[in-house]
Write a structure and sequence with these properties.
The complex is a heterodimer of chains A (about 170) and B (about 100).
Chain A: H1 3-24, H2 28-48, H3 52-77, H4 90-114, H5 124-130, H6 133-141, H7 145-166
Chain B: H1 5-25, H2 29-54, H3 58-88
Helix pairs in contact in B: 1-2, 2-3
Classes of the chains: A mainly alpha (about 170), B mainly alpha (about 100).
């Protein structure tokens, strides 16, 4: 078994288990911490896929900035613990899980039936180059300059919007 | 690249559906929001996997923009949650039903 397969198994197990734990914990703070663990596992998978820039951005932006915002709001609002899984509306919840399981099985069937890997011819060297910050920066500042500027404007608008929404109304 | 791309896609599908289940079964507004982040991330994994296997960086640029939108969405969404909490003193989405007819 090669190192790549071993690392894939480790990181995907981290992601899957922490995702499941995240939606099943009744305490919101613990859910947020498991989500951070899930993002760390995903960053490892991005590194396996030779996407170094995205892996670092995942850790800095998601696990760093966004999740700190979430934890801050959770601790500010102190949400009460939720009821156990089957205490409130058990039929609805079982139905939701069943629907999700059916869609997952459909997707898996579709994936292993159509076999997208047979039509892909991976070229290792090309793919290593495509994930560096140099390649992505070159693309961002030439072909994707307008979307990049629009993303900056979107962040500005979101900052102003968040401030206006969250501030106390002046009577 | 010894791992076939199907495994990455299957992992991504699983995480997406865990996120869907989280949105459907959880009643805490912040946890519902975190499940949405989980779904965004699983879509990112698909994009990065295809980008890497096709040797093309456009998918990763798209992931960059998805992260920007997710950051904006988190900021505005959490501000809305704070404003709602100030009015209703609850985070339970079953009790936040002022728009329900």
């Amino acid at each position: 078994m090669s190192l790549e397969i071993l690392l894939f198994i480790v990181f995907s197990l981290i992601s899957v288990i922490s995702a499941i734990l995240m939606i099943t914990r009744s305490n919101a703070v613990i859910s947020a911490l498991y989500l951070i663990l899930n993002f760390a596992g995903l960053a490892g998978l991005y590194l396996l896929l030779n996407a170094q820039f995205i892996a670092v951005t995942q850790v800095i932006v998601y696990a760093g900035a966004i999740m700190v915002l979430f934890l801050f709001v959770i601790m500010l609002l102190k949400p009460e613990h939720e009821k156990k899984f089957l205490e409130a509306k058990p039929k609805l919840k079982i139905f939701a899980v069943a629907i999700a399981a059916i869609i997952f099985l459909q997707l898996i069937y579709l994936l292993f039936f159509s076999k997208p890997s047979e039509s892909l011819s991976p070229e290792m060297t090309k793919s290593i180059d495509s994930g560096t910050i140099e390649a992505i920066g070159k693309q961002l500042y030439t072909n994707y300059l307008l979307p990049f500027e629009a993303a900056g404007f979107l962040l500005l608008a979101a900052t102003v919007g968040a401030l206006i929404l969250a501030k106390k109304k002046i009577e | 690249m010894t791992i076939p791309i199907e495994y990455y896609l299957a992992l991504s599908a699983f995480m997406f559906l865990v996120g869907v289940t989280g949105v459907l079964i959880r009643r805490n507004a912040i946890v519902v929001f975190m499940s949405i982040e989980l779904m965004l991330n699983s879509a990112n994994l698909t994009l990065v996997a295809f980008s890497s296997y096709l040797g093309n960086s456009v998918g990763q640029i798209f992931v960059f923009f998805v992260m920007t939108v997710a950051a904006a969405e988190a900021a505005v969404g959490l501000a809305i949650i704070i404003a709602l909490f100030r009015n209703k003193l609850t985070l339970n989405i079953d009790e936040i039903n002022i728009l329900k007819w």
